[in-house]
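Incident log, support desk, overnight shift.

02:14 A customer reports that sequence design results differ from what the structure should imply. Their input is reproduced verbatim below. On-call engineer (initials T.W.) acknowledged and began investigating.
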């Protein structure tokens, strides 16, 4: 494959709102040892991209300064010491950054084949949410069949993935969302109870069921003490974001007396090896479900790469259900 010297990309001209996402021309990156270069057809849009754009989620050392944590396309070049990938393979991958561009490099161990029967558009929406949900709900949270699982933001990219996977692996799923339409979407995906948090109290509803064994939360703030109340004895709370802020008054006595676990993680700063282990687990446990059509990404909308600002505005309006993608080629 002949590679051009430059490519179209979207850069963050300065920290700010969606309007700071600016079309630019950048050199095509070169894959280093253990890396592949992907010519992207689509890139997924995620809430952490908006945090980076606003200046509160900096790329880790060595990562591209361009936003974008996931993409799908074809392998355009292979660096030294890479096995298992050849130029022309259809691929989707978790990225350390740089997804809002025609070409992007990433460790080969963070790439996965496009599931059979799936379009590149759908495959571009898999990595960030599936790596996050698998590592937090199943590896860290230890969700088991028969347990009561509560996910906040049930209609988000993360939420729609968590509902489907938890249901598939036999958990009883409860989800919160901010409108009746979003609640209906959560029920269609397999939640047994969707809670419109504007009208109903998730604490009361979960306590009436015996409490949640596991909660996946991205809201934080006032939800922290309420999550603790909503947990069953021995319950686990996994925190993946703090949309309402990370600081709160919390009485930890309940954590001790009811043997609760409060934990959390962010994906991006983890080591290459840790991400490779998540990729291996996804390939073995989840990719067969995607190929069988038993789990699928929920697609909200598509924007051309050059309209990344409009894609961010849609995400931040919270009008969406599921994933937003950028069309690159
Ligand atoms: N830790 C990690 O490694 C990691 C990785 C990826 C994403 N994340 C985080 O996970 C969250 C979801 O990501 P995403 O890409 O799926 O984003 P998304 O689709 O934009 O989802 C965010 C959801 O949060 C809900 N929400 C927003 N503000 C809220 C508030 N103040 N109170 C209650 N709910 C609120 C919205 O639903 P309603 O309209 O129903 O309120 C929205 O659906 C983000 O916060 C993101 O930063 C963490």
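02:41 Re-run completed on a clean worker. Output:
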């Amino acid at each position: 494959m002949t590679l051009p010297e430059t490519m179209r990309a979207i850069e963050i001209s300065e920290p700010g709102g969606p309007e700071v996402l600016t079309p630019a021309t950048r050199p095509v990156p070169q894959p280093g040892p253990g890396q592949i270069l992907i010519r992207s057809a689509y890139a997924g849009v995620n809430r952490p991209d908006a945090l980076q754009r606003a200046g509160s989620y900096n790329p880790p050392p060595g990562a591209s300064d361009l936003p974008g944590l996931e993409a799908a396309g074809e392998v355009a070049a292979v660096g030294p010491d890479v096995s298992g990938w050849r130029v022309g393979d259809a691929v989707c991958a978790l990225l350390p950054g740089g997804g809002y561009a025609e070409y992007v490099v990433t460790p080969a161990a963070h790439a996965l084949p496009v599931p059979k029967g799936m379009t590149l558009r759908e495959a571009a929406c898999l990595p960030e949410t599936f790596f996050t949900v698998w590592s937090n709900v199943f590896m860290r949270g230890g969700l088991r069949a028969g347990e009561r699982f509560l996910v906040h933001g049930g209609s988000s990219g993360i939420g729609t993935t968590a509902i489907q996977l938890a249901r598939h692996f036999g958990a009883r799923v409860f989800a919160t969302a901010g409108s009746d339409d979003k609640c209906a979407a959560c029920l269609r995906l397999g939640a047994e109870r969707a809670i419109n948090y504007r009208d109903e109290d998730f604490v009361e509803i979960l306590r009436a069921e015996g409490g949640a064994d596991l909660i996946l939360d991205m809201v934080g703030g006032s939800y922290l003490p309420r999550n603790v109340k909503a947990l069953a004895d021995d319950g686990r709370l996994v925190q993946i974001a703090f949309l309402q802020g990370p600081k709160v008054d919390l009485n930890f006595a309940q954590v001790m007396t009811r043997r609760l676990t409060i934990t959390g993680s962010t994906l991006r700063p983890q080591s290459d090896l840790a991400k490779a282990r998540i990729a291996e687990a996804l390939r073995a446990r989840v990719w067969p479900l995607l190929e069988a059509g038993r789990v699928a990404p929920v697609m909200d909308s598509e924007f051309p790469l050059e309209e990344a600002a409009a894609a961010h505005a849609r995400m931040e309006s919270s009008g969406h259900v599921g994933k937003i993608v950028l069309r690159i080629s």
